[in-house]
From TrEMBL:
The lineage of its organism: Bacteria, Pseudomonadati, Pseudomonadota, Gammaproteobacteria, Cellvibrionales. GO terms for molecular function: carbon-sulfur lyase activity; metal ion binding. This is Glutathione-dependent formaldehyde-activating, GFA. Signal peptide: none annotated. It comes from Saccharophagus degradans (strain 2-40 / ATCC 43961 / DSM 17024). It comes from the Bacteria.
Length: 133
């Protein structure tokens, strides 16, 4: 069984995902744009994997947008996105909070009708390994 470790930015929350991810979606909906502050969310999904909080479970805050199924868990100290369990036990894990490398590549872009207009030609922009001078 695969095991993936993850944590928040401040290191106060640590967790383990036991099992495999079935899908990896880049979600372009307006809700994901708002809660990430970016063009899309990058979330891994698993129906059968188990989430185990190793440290800082008391710091995890969960917000569900009223009238929707949109849910976000985050560290109450540093605000980092964290895993959450959704309807029917579906585990959603923000890819960026994992400390263990994953082998799965994104499965699909979803809610592309809401895609931010400024992401259309990102591949044409200059690329830097670090912050440019």
């Amino acid at each position: 069984m695969a095991e993936y470790l993850g944590s928040c930015l401040c290191g106060g929350v640590k967790f383990e995902v036991q099992g495999e991810f079935e899908s990896f979606f880049l979600c372009h909906c307006r809700y994901c744009q708002k809660d990430t502050g970016s063009a899309h969310a990058a979330n891994l999904f698993a129906q059968s994997a188990k989430l185990v909080w190793l440290a800082g479970a008391e710091e995890v805050v969960t917000f569900t947008l009223p009238g929707t199924r949109h849910k976000k868990a985050f560290c109450g100290c540093c605000g980092s996105a964290l895993p959450s369990t959704h309807d029917a036990g579906m585990l959603a894990v923000p890819a960026g909070c994992l400390d263990t490398d994953i082998k799965i590549s994104p499965t699909a872009n979803i809610f592309t009708s809401s895609k931010a207009g400024w992401v259309k030609e990102l591949d044409l922009l200059p690329k830097f390994d670090t912050l440019p001078e």
